[in-house]
Amino acid sequence: MMIFNNTTSSPSTFLLTAFPGLELAHVWISIPVCCLYIIALLGNTMILFVIFVKQHLHKPMYYFLSMLSAADLCLTITTLPTVLGVLWFHAREISFKACLIQMFFVHAFSFLESSVLAIMAFDRFMAICNPLKYATVLKDMMIMVIGLFICVRQLIFIFPMLLALKTVSFQERKELSHPFCYHPDIIRDTYSNPWINSFLGLFLQLYMTGTDLMFILVSYVLIIRAVLSIVAPKKQKKALNTCVCHICAVTIFYVPMISLSFTHRLLSSTPRVICSILANVYLLLPPVVNPIIYSLKTRTIRQAMLQLLQTKGSWSRNVRGL
């Protein structure tokens, strides 16, 4: 590889960073981080398994919940090797191609989760505002088409961001601020003009998540208007209770994501350890909290999980009895 003034159009390696300044405590920090990963993996896998096994959960609301759990699960698996690799083995080096691949999946599954949250808002809108049309509009075929559409949408808009990175001149061994590859972090402090890539990344962020968030807000304005028109207070409360889990999921996803994006693009003087903490919150909070919220607040999910656990417990006792 030809190097001129210690720059290259495609560096051989990037250097990942977990928590800058806390390298000596990485082993201790890895304990809660590892626990959070285990909770995220088990929780989302459990929800997917329950919805797959229980026939009475084969409904639009739970199909969309399974999409959310799948996106969370894939996002967790995407960052797990590099995060624990840095914390446990100080394996900081990652090749340019591997970094691009990880960055693609991180942003793809993140944007996918945003789209799923928008679809779930539409589901709540139909269930509350148009209950008579709910079953006729959200049929199995329509749900499959929606799922395919949002997946294709991610691919179409993320590939240009990857191709644009080929034109950027990097340092030979660029040090990143996170234990995973994140687009605003990669293009920061490059030798070539990063404005084109930064603008493209910001455009995708605003278009993909901005339109989703706007759709969610409009849906809830219509939902609140419909709920306020209900005369009976108990029915109002029941209708709003069906939205609590989704509102929590939207909050814990968008607040860390917007905070991290603002920190990288507008607050360049922010300490790196703050960026690292925000990045880990952005990656781990939704996959960890979403299964807990939906398990505790959704009675059908909670009952299905308890039934499976009881069935497994009785089966184990019968096996031991034999």
UniProtKB/TrEMBL annotation:
Compartments reported by the entry: Cell membrane; Membrane
InterPro entries, sorted: GPCR_Rhodpsn, GPCR_Rhodpsn_7TM, Olfact_rcpt, OR51/52/56-like
Gene Ontology MF, one: G protein-coupled receptor activity
Membrane-spanning parts: 27-52, 64-89, 101-122, 143-165, 213-232, 239-257, 277-296
GO cellular-component term (any): plasma membrane
Short name of any one Pfam family annotated for the protein: 7tm_4
Domain G-protein coupled receptors family 1 profile: 43-294
Keyword set, alphabetical order: Cell membrane, G-protein coupled receptor, Membrane, Olfaction, Receptor, Sensory transduction, Transducer, Transmembrane, Transmembrane helix
UniProt GO BP: cellular response to lipid
4Fe-4S recorded as keyword: no
Protein name from the UniProt record: Olfactory receptor
GN (gene name): LOC104991222
